[in-house]
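As a warm-up, study this chain.
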Amino acid sequence: MSSASARGTELLMLWSFLALLQLTDPIEAAALQFNSHLAVSLASNGISFAASSEELRSDLLMTQLTDKKVTKKKMKKSYGSNETVVEEMVMCSQHPDAVYDGAIDVLLMFSKCIESSMLSTVETWARDMKNIVEDTVGHYDGVALNFKATMVSGTCTTTASPQQVSEADLDRLTAFPALGDAYPLDLATGSTDGFTAAISFATDETSYNEIVTFESTAQIVNTINFQLSGSGENCEGGPESCIELKEKEDLFMYNPFTVTQSLDCADLENGVPVTLVGDDGARQCFCGCPAGYEMQTKGRDKACVKVGGNASNCVWSKVSGYYHRVNSKASVCSFDHVVDKWGIPLPLPTSGYGSNKLLLLADGSLDPRVRVTAVKEQKPEYYSEFLSSALGSVPSTWPLKFKDVVVKAPSAAKFDPMVPGNDDLPIHDAAKTWKDYQSNRADAMNSIVFNDYGKYRLEMDAYDYYSSATCAGCLAILDNYRPQATTKCPASFCDSAAGAANCGCTAELTVESVARANNLIQQYFEYGDQAENDGCSGNNRCDLHQFSKQNFFESKFTRYSHDEGLSCFDQDLVLGDFLNHAKATVNPLKQSDGKCFDVIDPAPAGQCKRCCKMTTTLREFWTDYRCGSDYDARYCEGDSDQSCAFEQCLVIKGDTLATVTAHIKPDVVAESKKVLQQLHQEDSQTVTQVHRALECTSYYGDDGQCVYMAKISELVETTQTLNFDGDYRVNDFVHWRYKVNGDSEKWQLWKTRRQTSAETGCKWSTCEAVYDNDDVITFSDPETKISIEAWTQCGLVRTFFFYVHLHVNSAVDVCKDFSNMWYQTSVSRLPIAAQMCAYPGSDFAELTFDFHPNVGLQYSRTALRMNVSEVVCTGTLENRTPVEILRVTKNSPQIVTRFGVEMLHIPSTEAITNFDVSCDFTYLDYSESTHTKTCGRSFSIIDCKGPQFDVPGAKCEYDACAGNEKAGLYEACGGTMIKSTKTSTYVESAKKKCCQGCTQTDVACTPLLDTPNTDADLMRCEPVTSGPYSSYYYFPVTLLSEVTQEHPTAMMVLSGGALAVAVGLVVIRRRSNTALASAQTDSDMYFPLLN
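Now compare it with the structure written out below.
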């Protein structure tokens, strides 16, 4: 019943009973007691009440009695006559030990978190209880029911800490006066001697533990612990038990108080109460004599006097009983031949007739015989712990009569037996003739079969014709064999992956380890289930069980019902408990402010651990039967070595829960390989390295784009999977973070959430994923280390390292070598000084431009090669407008070009002709971007030859060729000539004819240097045949010598002696007389000597 109707029905029953009570005669005495019919006997915590599915009854035993000596008259006819005789009958009286003076004080204990509506319900219930007691026994002084109240601390919300009791909490109790006076718990502790019982109302684990601790400390024997519905885990199943109130009104189902009356025959010695219903229909109680006694008068009083033979001299009666302790296992509960096996002595009955005569004198009406009976006595059995707490721990000192126990320890009157007393059970009744017994006495006892442990009353009755004698004894058969295990207690396992080498009972949680742990738990339960006991014990096990569990994300063990331990490592339950736990999907890297935890281990170690701890101690109930005692002690005990403790922990680590990968994206790898093709780094790779080309030629420079910007998600691709089956989103469990440049930077969150198509604006399946916390990173260092970690609540899954390598283009400093690119091949390959000489005898200067594509490039293993793609040069004569003198568009060209620079003569000649040259060198980098370097320098040209007299042919040449369009003697007639007008500079490259001014000499257009490719050479008009002037053909050599005197470097070379001059002569002479094929060889000989 769980409604107000239940309360109404219960109260109706009680009030109906009280109404019936008023119709009977007045009750002369009553005892108010604490009803413990439904008590559970526990090992160390007194009496508590367990929840029951049946409605509790309020047992009230009322009968008519008196505490005064009262006699009544009864009328009967005298034997053998019709005379009426009046006899006095002794009325029953109240048993003096059952009369209680004083009040029963009950302490009500409330959790501070209890609701006021519940306090009101308890107040109503308490008022009802007092009214029932007062209406029943209220007219007897000294019998009363009193309540007092107190409060204990509690945890009122799941997120709060335990809260202590305050003055305001006690003030709440005063608002409900029927609860009695309110006391602080410490003051209530000081007055515990006056409390008969404690009734508590717990709302949570904190209040329940404090209540149980107080009851144990105060040693209150009678306790009822109520648990309010919805207040947490049921406390049922442990050593402490409680009653769960499904509804507040369920409280009215419980009435723990009874009014009892005990009957006695104080005025009749050895008398027993005899109840009957009188002629008026009222219950009456009179005193009579039990069987074996007769009513006799002793002086003025009557007494019941025992009649029959005296068995005090019997062999069985000379001892206080025989005890046999069964120490071995017996599969069948059967004990016989106790005389032969156990040495039980046999009485020897005798008679004045003699045994042989008895056989002859027997007839149908008279039956001389020897009769042996065995009766199993069932006395009340009390829990030994209760008796020990009241009488001490030495059973041999305990009284044999329970009434003496109550005298010694009054609290024992409230003990309820674990096994109630019952009627005696005959197990053997057989008679033999005197002769048969005398000839085979042992068989009379050996034939008795005892099929149970217990206390047996043995009687031997010897009958002759007219009288009998009885020999009575006692045999106690005790169970001294305890349950024994038949299987081994399982041992826990561990592995080094779970922690240190000495890992105890902790192992990594995998599908295999869960199955292994579950199998060990089944073995643990088999330890108790398959334990063996003797055949007489039956189902009397009282094993001590304990099971506690530390679940995922919990810091301590919590006790549960032992049966729940069977599924502690059930795979579906284990994985379900973790994967469905709210905390399992919380990002351990993210702080409350949205920032990333910048610590090494953001997830607490070991929090994804499930531990199951359970113990079983094999025990059984057994009774220490004592002959001559009207009660026995029942124990719950087992052998000390029959115990099994099992503890196993399985921990989920980051890489146990999930598997992740991270690799550079394929398109990024392809681009890196292209970059590496331009480098000479043999130790570079693209597995963990990203290679990118910059536009600039130096790190942190400004000659182009000198940084690389990208999101990490654009470079690195990740995958993640759960290692356990189930319909779960892996992204809810795996979380990422990164940092760059090693430990110098802080950890940052990465890819915390993929944005929706509505956020990105892209609704196609091919859209690139866009994530929160995936910012663009600017890379500017030659090498940048990227650390990426995947985490779960269970720890680190894996760490990845990637490197971004930036490569600049080769540095270009072509202008540093620009001056060395210009020299006069006709004079020396040495760099040109500030001034240069015109070619001897001519009005122009020979100038060579020699360019190699590697000049000015600074190569390194980590820099990208730059390639020159175009060279454009311009020349300017004496502040005239410039002209393009060279354009070569080609990758990495080799350039050797000779120019003839004509000295100024328009509008007039000048002593010095100034010539400026500027070149633009265009380079292409890896990205096809152009880089241009502009270099320039100036030259001064003078006529180093000087005037001469009477030069052969001079006159005819002058007369015939002066002002002629054709080239005169020693004038340029071919090659690239740089000339000028008054305002501009121009280039002339067409070949001209030579003017033939002297008839004796042919003038031909002759190369200056005899190069194989005449197009790459300068040419001038020179005489080519023998004539009057042939003896003067040494003229150019002489001029060359004169010119070199004006060139300091050349003079230094020539000052070495005649060898250098001779070489010069040989070259010149052979230049005009040898084939073109040998000219190159001679030139190669020439230049090394000069350089």
